[in-house]
Design a protein that fits this description.
The complex is a heterotrimer.
Chain A lengths: L4 H17 L37 H16 L2 H4 L9 E2 L4 E2 L12 E2 L2 E2 H4 L30 H9 L9 H10 L1 H4 L15 H13 L12
Antiparallel strand pairs in A: 1-2, 3-4
Helix pairs in contact in A: 2-5, 2-8, 6-8
Chain B lengths: L4 H8 L2 H7 L4 E3 L4 E3 L5 E4 L2 E3 L5 E5 L8 H13 L6 E5 L16 H28 L7 E3 L2 E4 L2 E4 H9 L29 H5 L15 E6 L7 E6 L1 H4 L4 E7 L13 E6 L2 H9 L2 E5 L8 H12 L4 E6 L2 H7 L2 E9 L11 E7 L2 E6 L4 H12 L6 E5 L13 H13 L3 E4 L2 H6 L3 E2 L2 E9 L5 E9 L15 H4 L12 E7 L7 E2 L6 H18 L4 H9 L7 H4 L18 H14 L5 H4 L2 E9 L2 E11 L5 E11 L6 H20 L5 E2 L2 E2 L18 E6 L17 H13 L8 H4 L3
Parallel strand pairs in B: 5-6, 10-20, 18-19, 21-25, 23-24, 28-31
Antiparallel strand pairs in B: 1-2, 3-4, 4-5, 7-8, 8-9, 10-13, 11-14, 12-13, 15-24, 16-22, 17-18, 17-20, 22-23, 26-27, 27-28, 29-30
Chain C lengths: L1 E5 L2 E5 L7 H8 L18 E4 L2 E4 L5 H4 L3 E3 L11 H8 L9 H14 L5 H7 L10 H11 L6
Parallel strand pairs in C: 1-5
Antiparallel strand pairs in C: 1-2, 3-4, 3-5
Helix pairs in contact in C: 3-6
Classes of the chains: A mainly alpha, B alpha+beta, C alpha+beta.
């Protein structure tokens, strides 16, 4: 079995594949579990509550599982569309290129004539169908999430050099209360919201921090 | 050239009356309104010379970007000898005395050229006669130029002569001589853009810009499906919105729909925002009506089936069936173009005021007189009590020839007892357009052993425009002369058939109309034949066009050709002119060097509205991996061109216009409802997609003028499709190309 | 009541704070140079400056403009003398003209922050301004002319 840290990621992948092959539910890393496993899956539009992860006895494993659950929000198109790797935001559940064509600009706020706030207001517009929230802008490139794994997002979110200089407590605050983040659950028109609620995300992240802010392994998926 | 009195009157309608009546249409320069005057000189409805020398020239065609206001007055002024610095231009209201005011079909100059020159020349003749009388010299020894009449060194200004000229009898047109072209000082070259300064300062008045005291703004919730009607509605929430004053149901139109208002429920408010909010708060149940199952995907199959069976004969020479059966090789292809929406930048809007037994309308209308008739019918007033003022049009392309939106304004103004502006929202414009007809065609060619085309059969199916006006599904001969019956083919056996296509939406006409899809199919098909033979598409284009000649009806295999309302004697189908634009465009594009240069080019050419156009485009893959047109060359022969600058602008614009339906497509329907509703899903080319360069070459000619506004459009889509084939190896036979393109 | 400056003049308007600036300009103040093209921030015909920045007035609520300065096409210059307006006339840019106020306002903001824009800069900044008549090539040329950039 795999004991060494470096091999764990690869092992997790192998185990996951094996588990898939025999139709078993995926599981976090090869470590023996103490106490209960992950809480049962919920429908796509919902989030598992932070409390329900308490049944995972091992602190580190619980921590990883909490972040993996939170990543279902981060990787949802409503969030990831404004965390692009390149210079243009995405739009829609199919993550197509934003139309009208816009670019990031020097401050992640667009360029003259087509700044984000040239069109986007501080709230959703129903008749005009333009989504809006306070301070509408792109996440900086270091916070690109498109095509990233939960592991990579976790590492970025913990890293003050890449998370806007935030301490973990501020990360909790940002996720739980930031009004632009809040938009993900109130996207307006007939856009599909991110799963769960912002309050639930806040508690997941708080619980994640409290349990040591461990990152899921590279191959782990929620 | 000689002009008969009758031909002159065809354009200018009741001009004879105006000649007799003399002074009715003088204009008050303070407000541009017609007034009776006893001072000044009004030889006809287009020209007024005031005693202070101010010359007023009337532009009685609608300005929609094609530059009529920069061109018609300049033509009048040059013929007259007026100085444009002392000219004021007035937009003519709807008035039969102006003759035909229908601004469409690319007719403003080609139909107006001779009558307008005659009108200017008549004024000149009379001013010269007045001066000659005063000086007691012969008129032939006098010259009119620079706003005066000269005899040697002495001169009399037009203003000084106005009163005397007004007393002279108006000569009949056949006695009035036009200037030789060499004496026309400004036209036939670039002319200044008259309205540029007003437009760039935000001072040009468009439909929605007119404001009247007490005016209400109306926004209408219209039946989503053509032929649908209001079943029941609840206006309670709408009326609770601050600013909303009334909610009015519009009567359901009975087919054929023509220009009747579309039905639905109108919200009237004291500002546009309240009206839009009010409409959103309406609760309406619709009775969807007979077209609720219209599905454009399924209809595509219906059209395909239609063209795979014989149709009604449209043209016939030789024996196509026999020739096809003996052909060494048969090539067949099916083409499809969806419904296209006009999506003018200015959505339809019009203002009406009905009071004291009179109706006054301000509208961006291409058809002022028909708008007047429509308003009269809607309000129950006599046409004499209806006045229609024509504003600037923020784009038209055929949409604003339909006066349904004027009828809505008139109806609501009468209902409300206050002036009303009807404002179409963009969603309304995209969803409830008079779409260009959807079309499918089947082209079949038989080639002999040497690859020469010996048989050509074309079947076309499209719901015709006349379906909007009467129950029919058969195109008229006028419809077919847009690329079917007028297309020269040096092929011994040719047959064209029209196949059945029922209309499920209101069909209208959109900038070059049926030419869009007939040029797309024919030019794509010729290109396919060329590639099948491993030959240069230009060579095959010229081979199928045949030798230089004037094409006869016998060669076309038809009994008659309406030829865009003009005679074949005056505007023949001249394959020499067709060949030369192909050669000019390909020469400009360095066609022969394209492979050596590593450039991918596509070619198409078409004659429409009496003008010949060839287009070559260069396509590349852009940074994002998408196909882009990076350069375009357009060569045209339009006969005499009065305003080279606007003609060039129209051709440049036609390339962009054509690119939109080529890359971004048209309108589709599901369950009877148009799926698109905004620029998010009815996309248009944006500045980043425009080519780096568009080169326009306009042949020098003193032949009669051909059309300018539309002919640039039809060759664009097939030129691009042909280039895309070379770039990708994919032959796309429908628009938008991007639907089927495998990237 | 919403108080703001429009083209240099202080105005106080009794309007719904959610009313888009476009309708306050057109319906209440009678400044009809700014156009309605879509109401959904897709076409740019409604572009004005809010404290010098381009906004689509069709979606900008009046409360966002409160206490701030709005500049419309009517206020871009005295007598139409802005270099862009001059270049637009010299190159005969407009056809129907409906989109041009929005194009000019957007281009004016571009030149104010980037006096020598490249073709790419122009295309990026004007990407939100549609022109159905297809005057894009002349728009690009006129922006460069106004910026004093020589023709290629």
């Amino acid at each position: 079995m795999c004991h060494r840290r470096e091999a764990r990621g690869r092992c997790a992948l192998v185990i996951a594949l094996v588990a898939l092959a025999c139709g078993c539910t995926r599981r976090e890393s090869g470590e023996a579990r103490k106490g209960g496993g992950s809480p049962p899956q919920v429908p796509a539009g919902e989030l598992r509550s932070a409390e329900s992860f308490a049944q995972i006895g091992d602190r580190a494993e619980r921590s990883r599982a909490l972040f993996a659950e939170a990543s279902r929000v981060f990787l949802h198109p409503r969030c990831v569309n404004c965390h692009p790797d390149g210079d243009t935001p995405h739009q829609g559940m199919d993550q197509s290129v934003h139309d009208p064509p816009v670019v990031r600009g020097p401050d992640d706020k667009g360029v003259v004539g087509v700044q984000c706030t040239s069109c986007h207001q501080d709230h959703n517009l129903e008749l005009a169908r333009v989504p809006g929230a306070p301070q509408w802008h792109l996440a900086p490139r270091v916070m690109a999430w498109v095509g990233k794994s939960p592991h990579a997002i976790c590492e970025q979110m913990k890293d003050p050099a890449r998370n806007g200089g935030r301490a973990l407590a501020q990360i909790v605050e940002h996720n739980a209360h930031d009004p632009l983040v809040a938009w993900g659950w109130n996207p307006g028109h007939d856009r599909e919201p991110a799963p769960g609620t912002q309050e639930q995300l806040g508690r997941l992240i708080a619980a994640w921090v409290e349990s040591g802010a461990e990152c899921p392994s590279e191959g782990a998926r929620p | 050239m000689a002009i008969t009195r009758r031909r002159f009157l065809e354009y200018s309608g009741g001009l004879a009356l105006a000649f007799a009546a003399g002074r009715v249409l003088a204009v008050d320069p303070r407000n541009g309104k017609p007034k009776r005057t006893t001072s000044g000189f009004d030889p006809n409805v287009f020209v007024h010379v005031a005693t202070d020398g101010l010359v007023t020239l009337v532009c009685a065609r609608s300005e929609m970007g094609q530059g009529v206001r920069s061109t018609i007055p300049a033509l009048l002024a040059d013929e007259l000898g007026a100085d444009m610095a002392r000219v004021t231009i007035v937009q003519g209201d709807a008035d039969k005395r102006y003759g035909d005011q229908k601004t469409d079909g690319s007719t403003s100059i080609r139909n107006g050229y001779e009558p307008l020159r005659k009108a200017g020349a008549t004024a000149r003749t009379m001013l010269v006669a007045a001066a000659a009388r005063r000086w007691k010299v012969s008129p032939a020894s006098c010259v009119a130029r620079d706003h005066a009449v000269f005899h040697g060194k002495r001169s009399l200004g037009f203003g000084e002569l106005a009163a005397e000229a007004a007393k002279l009898p108006v000569p009949p047109p056949e006695e009035v001589k036009l200037r030789p072209r060499s004496e026309m000082r400004h036209v036939f070259k670039d002319l200044p853009l008259i309205d540029g300064p007003a437009i760039v300062a935000g001072k040009a008045t468009f439909g929605a810009d007119v404001r009247l005291p007490g005016m209400l703004v109306a926004v209408i919730a219209r039946p989503p499906v053509v032929g649908g009607r209001v079943s029941r509605y609840d206006a309670k929430r709408a009326l609770a919105i601050p600013g909303v004053k009334r909610v009015v149901e519009i009567p359901t139109p009975k087919p054929p729909y023509a220009f009747q208002p579309w039905g639905g429920v109108a919200v009237l408010a004291d500002n546009t925002w309240a009206a839009l909010r009010g409409r959103a708060a309406l609760e309406i149940e619709w009775d969807e009506g007979p077209n609720a199952e219209y599905d454009s995907d399924r209809y595509r199959i219906t059209l395909s089936e239609s063209v795979h069976a014989p149709g009604s004969l449209a043209r016939n020479t030789g024996d196509v069936d026999a020739a096809l059966s003996k052909a060494a090789r048969v090539i067949e292809a099916e083409y499809h173009v969806p419904h296209l929406a006009h999506v003018t930048m200015e959505p339809p809007a019009a203002i009406a005021r009905v009071e004291g037994g009179k109706c006054e309308v301000w509208a961006p209308t291409q058809y002022p007189q028909e708008a007047r008739t429509q308003a009269a019918t809607t309000t129950g007033l006599s046409e004499n009590d209806v006045q229609v003022h024509v504003t600037f049009l923020g784009g038209a392309f055929g949409r604003k020839a339909k006066s349904d939106f004027v009828a809505e304004a008139a109806f609501l103004a009468r209902e409300a007892g206050r002036p009303v502006r009807i404002q179409w929202a963009r969603e309304d414009d995209v969803r409830h357009d008079y779409y260009n007809a959807v079309n499918t065609q089947l082209l079949t060619a038989g080639l002999d052993e040497r690859g020469k085309v010996v048989a050509w059969r074309l079947r076309t199916a499209f719901p015709p425009i006349s379906s909007t006006f009467k129950p029919t599904n058969q195109p008229s001969a006028d419809d077919l002369q847009q690329g079917i019956t007028d297309r020269p083919l040096a092929v011994p056996n040719v047959r064209a058939e029209t196949c059945r296509a029922d209309a499920h939406v209101r069909i209208g006409w959109l900038r070059s109309v049926y030419n869009i899809f007939h040029a797309f199919s024919v030019n794509s098909f010729i290109d396919e034949i060329a590639h099948a033979r491993g030959e240069d598409p230009r060579a095959v284009q010229l081979e199928i066009l045949g030798p230089d000649r004037i094409v006869t009806l016998a060669e076309l295999g038809v009994d008659k050709l309406s030829n865009y309302g003009d005679s074949l004697e005056k505007h023949p189908i001249d394959t020499g002119r067709w060949r030369r634009v192909i050669e000019r465009a390909t020469e400009m594009a360095r066609w022969d060097k394209r492979r050596a240069d590593g450039r991918v080019l596509g070619l198409a050419a078409h004659r429409s509205f009496l003008t010949y156009v060839a287009v070559v485009v260069s396509v590349v893959r852009n940074g994002a991996g998408r196909i882009a047109v990076d350069e375009a060359w357009l060569a045209t022969d339009a006969g005499t061109v009065v305003n080279l600058e606007r003609a060039r602008a129209q051709m440049e614009g036609a390339v962009i216009f054509g690119m939109s339906h080529t890359f971004h497509g048209g309108a589709t329907m599901k369950r009877g409802v148009t799926e698109q509703s905004s620029f998010a899903d009815y996309r248009l080319v944006r500045i980043g997609e425009a080519p780096r360069r568009i080169h326009v070459d306009i042949a020098t000619s003193d032949g009669p003028p051909g059309g300018i506004g539309e002919p640039g459009v039809p060759p664009v889509a097939p030129a691009i499709a042909n280039a895309v084939f070379v770039l990708t190896g994919q032959r796309i036979r429908e628009l938008p190309l991007t639907l089927r393109l495998v990237t | 009541m919403i108080k703001l400056k429009v083209n240099g003049a202080v105005r106080e308007l009794d309007v719904d704070p959610e009313m888009p600036l476009l309708w306050a300009l057109r319906d209440v103040l009678g400044l009809t140079g700014t156009k309605y093209g879509c109401g959904q921030a897709q076409c740019g015909a409604c572009s004005v400056h809010l404290d010098g920045e381009v906004v689509r007035s069709c979606v900008t609520p009046m409360r966002r403009a409160a206490g701030r300065e709005v500049t419309t096409i009517e206020g871009l210059s005295v007598d139409g003398n802005h270099p862009l307006q001059r270049a637009w006339c010299e190159l005969a840019v407009p056809q129907c003209g409906f989109c041009q106020a929005g194009q000019i306002m957007t281009a004016a903001a571009l030149l104010a922050s980037n006096p020598k824009p490249s073709n790419t800069d122009i295309e990026r900044s004007l990407a939100g301004n549609l022109c159905r008549c297809g005057t894009y090539l002349r728009i690009r040329a006129a922006v460069k002319k106004a910026a004093g950039i020589p023709e290629e």
